[in-house]
Amino acid sequence: MNFNKVHDDYYHMVNRISSEYASKFKMVEKADVIQELWLWFMTHPNKIEEWISLESQKDGDKLFARSLRNAALDYCLKEKAIKEGYNYADNFWYTKDFIKMLIPAVLSDDWTKLDNALSNTGKNTKSLAESGDWMAYAADIKSAFEKLTEQEQNLVFLFYAEDLEGDNLHEVAGEDKSSKRATMMQANRAIGKMVKSLGGNPPFKDYDDEQVVEDDLSNVS
Prior knowledge:
Layout: H1 3-24, H2 30-43, H3 45-52, H4 57-84, H5 96-108, H6 112-120, H7 132-146, H8 150-161, H9 166-173, H10 180-197, H11 213-218
């Protein structure tokens, strides 16, 4: 690996992403984020070799940007935890599955629906409607739901709260889509927007093992 060439090729990307995360996390110095991102390059020679050899430079740049943002987020969250005095492991992340589980109860204010959902997964808890944690989750999810467009809210409500089947969902709310699958995918993307509104996905484990490029690209939006 010619690190000098890598440095020249990705200097601007590293600085741009470092500025982005230093702006989001005021307690972190940009220079420290920059150092962390160059450390990522030093510890991922396999990915560098594989991704710079892709036929499309644009595809390679997307993969580098995804991993660098992941490294920056992981570093900044750990530094924030240290400086604010809490355990990094205590960070809570909203997932699509978690939001989907709570949506019926949140949008109907019927907590028996969450009781039933938890029972189906083998989980249980006491007094869901009186639990501070569950009430906080509900408030967050409702706030994220209200940030969706009217069409997205309609899709999420019908598909996930009312449990409308794909065919019926397409008939009722997907007139502008070519198929029921397209309508269902739009509803799923709306849940993805809610995840992003609620803090996004947690950093992923970024190893330097041999990668399947097609799988990597499928995870890049």
